[in-house]
Amino acid sequence: MIRAAAPPLTGEVDAYEDELASYLGVTDVVAVSSGTTALQTGLYAAGVRPGDRVIVPALTVVMTVAPVVALGAQPVFVDCNDDGTDFDLDDLTAHLDGATAIVPVYLWGRAPSSDAVRHLAAQHGIPVVVDACQALGTMIGRTHAGLDATVGCYSTHQLKLLSTGEGGFLATDDSELAATARAYRSHWLTAPPRSAPASRIAHNFRLAEPLAALGRAELAGLDEQISWRTEQTLLMIRLLAEVKQLEALVPRRQRWNHYAPVFRLHLDRPRAFAEHLAALDIPVPNSTGTFKLIPLDQRPMFADETAPRCTTAATVLDSILAIALTRADDHTRQLRDQPLGGDRPFHHVKQRFAGVFIDHRRDLHRPTVGSGVELEVQRPHHLRRVGLDRRNRGHPGSFAGMVLPDLQALLAPEPVDLLDIDPRALIEPQSRPRAAEPVSLIPDRIRAQPGPHTGVRIGRGVLDRQPPIRRPIQPNNLAREPFRHSLHLTKHVHGAALGCWAQNFPVMIM
To answer: Averaged over 204-220, what is the pLDDT?
Structure first.
């Protein structure tokens, strides 16, 4: 059999770079294979060579400093300000002598609220290479975050707001720097007609043409993706606004892309709390509990007992909880179809979710369960009944084990102190409803009726009646399910609860 070869996919990278440059308002974009290689390419193009000193914040991920080490340069760790969005300017000034580059990091999508670093760098003639891998879409005035510098570096990893599966790019208005970056990403080879033997050792950091084609499609929906992530993050912040142990940290002087909700924990052992969340059967991925973030100067490969510690960075990381939202969490868009507003005022949401935060120092995630309670769950196209009693309440990590063990207790009208809250007091309506009277649970309806046990199946998706057994809803098939008016609970915390937001556990209560 003779098969005709498919024509190769060509020109996608060039078109992708042009479209990104137009979107960002810069002259040049260079697409590469990852955010890490974007940083390495940007640093090399900015003039960093072996033995150079590169200033890096202590408060960042190890992927920021890896390119510095790969280039043979010496990372110099500088402490941060009180909220972790910028360098400590005094500490930065003390380390400027002999520095070849400064690498600010816009962690969790947050840009600094001042231009002080840029001005200091300009005074000393030091290029600024911004790690904006998480900040695509954040705007400072009319400028995209990362572009108020010599070069901005971005990631298009599968968990980023713009995804090519894996990939990255750097953006700049310096055409000479961009030309150096293009040569460095491609073994120092130049395209015809100016082809010549490679004069330097460089790398293969090229982005594959099919991934560039994917990036072009993703770029067309980037603003919508950022808008949805903003809605999702702001909803989480508003629902938890009355929880006194949580302080939402919203950056100033910018249009934040809301890459990750960031809270300050007012607890005696905040890192232990974060680790508790990450260890749950249905985990809540977060900065310290899951990713074990510690200041870079405290990591074993960089630890120097003779150097002063970056103490503010350590304090900030210990007290901050950044929730890692993913594209799976963004997969359903029901909240946009049925926004919380008008006849669903937010003060009702706050009342009913005021008890979501459970003191992590107390073992309250195994409540005593009373008699069976039957729930009637209404959906646009389905009507189901599920029942719960102590025999099938689910393990402590289940939605049933946390939220629905005893509906009568859930509906208790008495206010509850947040430090002593029981999961059964999660909802605080103003009055106990009569049998079969609907109780609003945002943005869905749930009806409580005393009745016999009917059985429940706890899956990684919906709660269902037995029999029949239905397949659980997974993130990759959510779009095919006809639940347009459901609430996608994207992060779930039981025991030490932050909210009913279940990663890979989209409980649909309609």
So the answer is: 95
Write the pLDDT tens digit of every residue in 44-65: 999 999 999 999 999 999 999 9
d(CA 225, CA 219): 10
Alpha-carbon distance values, 348 to 210, 241, 438, 445 (Å)? 48, 12, 14, 13
The per-residue pLDDT for range 391-435, each reduced to its tens digit, is 333 333 332 233 223 322 323 333 333 333 333 333 333 333 344
pLDDT at 9: 61
Give me the domains of the chain, ranges plus CATH numbers: 12-221 (3.40.640.10), 223-322 (3.90.1150.10), 334-480 (no CATH)
Helix (H) or strand (E) holding 139: strand 139-140
Residue 277 CA to residue 498 CA, distance in Å, equals: 9
Q: Where are the beta strands (DSSP E) in 266-408?
A: 320-322, 373-378, 383-388
Q: What is the pTM of this model?
A: 0.68
**Residue 79: is its pLDDT beyond 50?**
yes
The alpha carbon of 430 is separated from its chain's Cα centroid by a whole number of angstroms, namely 34
Structure tokens at 121: 């760098």
What are 54's two structure tokens? 């590169």
* CA–CA distance, 45 with 308 (Å, rounded to integer): 31
**Residue 291 pLDDT exceeds 80:** yes
- Count the alpha carbons within 13 Å of 16 in the hemisphere toward its beta carbon: 30
pLDDT given at position 330: 53
Q: Check if the beta carbon of residue 145 is closer than 8 Å to that of residue 62.
A: no
- Which residue, among 59, 107, 125, 48, has the nearest Cα to 87 in the 3D structure? 59
Half-sphere exposure of 43 (CA within 13 A, CB side): 33
- Of residues 313, 326, 502, the one with CA closest to residue 397: 502
CA distance 369 to 432: 19
Residue 199 pLDDT > 90: no
The rounded distance, in Å, linking the Cα atoms of 143 and 135 is 12
70 φ, ψ (degrees, to nearest 5): -60, -30
Question: Does pLDDT of 488 surpass 60?
Answer: no
Q: From CA 55, how far away is CA 96, in angstroms rounded?
A: 8
Burial of 169 (0-12, 13-18, 19+ CB in 10 A): buried
- Helix (H) / strand (E) element for 76: namely strand 74-78
- Which letter does DSSP use for residue 48 in this model? -
Cβ-Cβ contacts under 8 Å for 252 (sequence gap 6 or more): 113
pLDDT tens column, 296-351: 999 999 988 778 899 999 999 999 999 988 766 654 444 444 443 333 333 333 33
- Nearest C-alpha neighbor of 169 from the set 210, 215, 201, 121: 215
- Rounded CA-CA distance 216/156 in Å is 12
Nearest one of 169, 194, 191 to 45, comparing CA atoms: 169
Within 10 Å of residue 272's Cβ, how many Cβ atoms? 15
C-alpha 251/C-alpha 234 separation (Å) is 13
Confidence of residue 94 (pLDDT cuts 50, 70, 90): very high
